Amino acid sequence: MGVLGRTAALVPAAGRGERLGAGVPKALRLIGGTPMLVHAVHALSASRAVDLVIVAAPETEVDEVRALLAEQAGTAEVIVVTGGATRQDSVARALINLPHDVDVVLVHDAARPLVPSEMVSAVVAAVRRGHDAVIPALAVTDTIKSVNADEDVIGTPDRSSLRAVQTPQGFVRSVLQSAHASANDDSATDDASLVERQGVKVHVIPGHEEAFKVTRPIDLVLAEAVLAKRRATRAIG
Ligand code: CTP
Ligand code: MG
């Protein structure tokens, strides 16, 4: 990369949260009294590596999300756009709104509200060190099976070679843009998979337990506990 540009974080937040259960869109569910999306945006903007955050909000909540994030302004600039029907579509809609002076792009799930800011900075640093695509990941603890349509096991991949992938995932801007432009459907559940299809090498760095995705009701219990522990530690320290 040449002259340093700005770093933007795209935040897909337009999901309905069906596995979590009905009610408000998942990104607006509260953890410790604060919407998940607000936690996520703060974690990103608390990293000094991030200059700009672009949120893809649920179509019906764009104004509400704008108001929420205007009130709770961090240091980074925040733009809110309308999300799409799939995660990939939401990321694509945020990408369209990327200013010209951005050269590194992160994509971070709103559903990972408690990501440590240090991990955000580590992803940006790895891209700026020369990796075209960087993803944080953890070793898996369960044994993973492949099954067929009848739920019969067809294989057991070697666990030591498997990783559970998190966000933020970081990319050289042009790499992410051409991967999205070349996608032939809109079903990718992460951005690295689109980049992999282009034959670009994706580098893994250590993830963090607290960057887990809030997907099912029990994840909310864990998120509340992690936040309570952080607040207690801060009160003592
Ligand atoms: N997402 C999005 N637009 C969509 C679908 C998902 O921006 N049309 C976002 C979610 O808001 C979330 C991230 O992608 O931050 C990861 O998706 P997931 O955890 O699957 O969230 P939901 O799709 O909301 O949940 P579910 O699949 O249980 O409905
Ligand atoms: Mg989903």
Report helical residue fraction. Answer: 25-40%
Instruction: Determine the strand fraction and express it as a percent band.
Output: 15-25%
Q: What's the CATH first level? A: Alpha Beta
Report the end-to-end length measured between terminal Cα atoms. Answer: 41 Å
CATH domain fold name: Spore Coat Polysaccharide Biosynthesis Protein SpsA, Chain A
By DSSP, the count of extended strands is: 12
Bound molecules: cytidine-5'-triphosphate, magnesium ion
- Tell me the CATH superfamily: Spore Coat Polysaccharide Biosynthesis Protein SpsA, Chain A
Largest sheet: 8 strands, mixed
Individual helix count: 7
Q: Structural class of the helices, strands and pairings?
A: alpha/beta
Radius of gyration: 18 Å
Tell me what the CATH architecture is.
Alpha-Beta Complex
How many independent structural domains?
A: 1
Can you tell me about this structure?
The chain is of the alpha/beta class and 237 residues long. The protein is built from seven helices and twelve strands. The chain has helices at 36-46, 62-71, 87-96, 117-128, 173-182, 192-197, 217-236, and strands spanning 6-12, 30-31, 34-35, 52-57, 77-82, 102-107, 133-139, 146-147, 153-155, 163-165, 169-172, 203-206. The longest helix is centred in the C-terminal third of the chain and has 20 residues, at 217-236. It is globular, with a radius of gyration of 18 Å. Residues 12-20, 26-27, 56, 83-87, 90, 109-111, 213, 215 line the site of cytidine-5'-triphosphate (CTP).
